[in-house]
Amino acid sequence: MHRPLAWLALCVASSKALEDVGERGFLLVATSTTLERLWTYEARAEKGDLHQIDHFDDLGAVLRDICRTSFRARLIVGTPKEAAKAERVLPCEQISVAPLEVDEHRRLEVAPLDIEHRRLTDLEHRRLGKIDIRLRFFKVDAILKGLDYAFPGGTLYIDNDGAIRRDGVDGLFAMFDAMRKEKKAVGLQIAYTCLPKDHETKVPESFCERNGGVMFLGDAGKAREILERWSEELRAHPSKDGHDQVSLRTVLFDFRDDLYDLHPVVQHLGVRADVCKRVDTRKGPTLPHLWHEHHHGRLKFSQSPFARRNSLVDAQGLVCGFVP
């Protein structure tokens, strides 16, 4: 059957548009403490000794999620030595590693955290706010480094404590298309609590905080400008509770014309049962693409009587499509 020339022209134009978008991929960052748990897991994997899961290995869980997709990822670590060691235990070839090369002054700011930042309780986090801030310094600087390897079609930064729904990854990266349509440089999700107590700044209260655990970096140049400002603001005005949303909100307000507010379907935050609750989208009710909760919290929920009683866990152990 012969196709009309107009139809063929449309197909060629559509294919070219898809090619022009460029490759898209993930960006993650990891301190030496985080890497230590990954190394321990992979060492056991080589011996076939995985009957004891490291419930605190957030990084390994999300890397294995990425390996189940067709997308590549960049992992930024602290030193060249850590990068070389990490490369030997990565779960798949889709992930590449690069070290964060910072000046000695900033290295001293980051180094002490690995000694004390091990499995801290929420109360300990509040007591040791300065250590938590040092983690934030590392995170922002490492994301900046990751922009040296930005994917041309868009770089998706996610915190390590997240799970990727197996059949939701294409919908996740489709957010870059919505951003391009609106000509926005970065995409973040409005925080569940618009403005927590003691987070007030000079920014108008009507401008809510954004969740910095998932960031769509569509325009690498503008994203770099925003991240550089964030790094400066975070160091100049650290929040009392050690969180980075306060400084991020200040910076994003100045760049609000470049900011895209992500659809709620992008992620579910926490271990509440509504991780299985569908969100209304143009394509109909859809499960969240990301489950933003620590690995041990997801595992605990999947093994809870509530989850089993309500049939939220399938025969493969998946919680509504997520590997806990």
Automatic annotation (TrEMBL):
Signal peptide residue numbers: 1-17
Q: Which keywords belong to this entry?
A: Signal
According to UniProt, the name of this protein is: Nucleotide-diphospho-sugar transferase domain-containing protein
Q: What is the native source organism of this protein?
A: Aureococcus anophagefferens (Harmful bloom alga)
- Upper taxonomic lineage: Eukaryota, Sar, Stramenopiles, Ochrophyta, Pelagophyceae
